[in-house]
Amino acid sequence: MFFENNHLNFNIHEVRFLNQRDVNMFNSGRNFCALSYRLRADTVLKTPSADHKLTDNSVAFIPAGVDYTRISRVDEMIVVRLDSISYSGKDIESFLPNDPNVISTLFHKLLDCWNSKKPGYKYRCSSI
User: Rounded CA gap, 76 and 57, in Å?
Assistant: First the structure.
């Protein structure tokens, strides 16, 4: 699993905040991975093998190349688009953290760091 891997190598392409409502969208095998934290969500990510229900404070990893449909009533999230060099999954992975405040703080810090574009920001973002 992505979240249990202690030796990840990755390259961040973008960090964004999204706030969307009433979404029903098919995403075809993107050439990047996505790591997201949902601040508020009533979302289902459907793949050929499973339905992944995402709620407030959910964390999800979508590997590159995975086809899925996102159906959301509410989907407010911070998403990191990245290349995973040392891990390739076959399906979406998600969890609900025991202490969402820790995860929320890290994702907000990551978004602020990315948006600041200060010298060395990509290295700082990777360390976060």
Answer: 10
Q: What is the CA radius of gyration of the chain?
A: 14
The values of phi and psi at residue 53, to 5°, are -85, 125
- If one counts every other C-beta atom within 10 angstroms of the C-beta of residue 15, the result is 21
Q: Is the pLDDT of residue 1 over 60?
A: no
pTM of the model: 0.90
Q: Please tell me the distance from the alpha carbon of residue 37 to that of residue 23, in angstroms, as a whole number.
A: 17
What is the pLDDT at residue 90?
84
Sequence-distant (6+) residues with CB within 8 A of 60 are 34, 35, 36, 38, 45, 52, 54, 92, 93, 94
**Which pLDDT score is estimated for 61?**
93
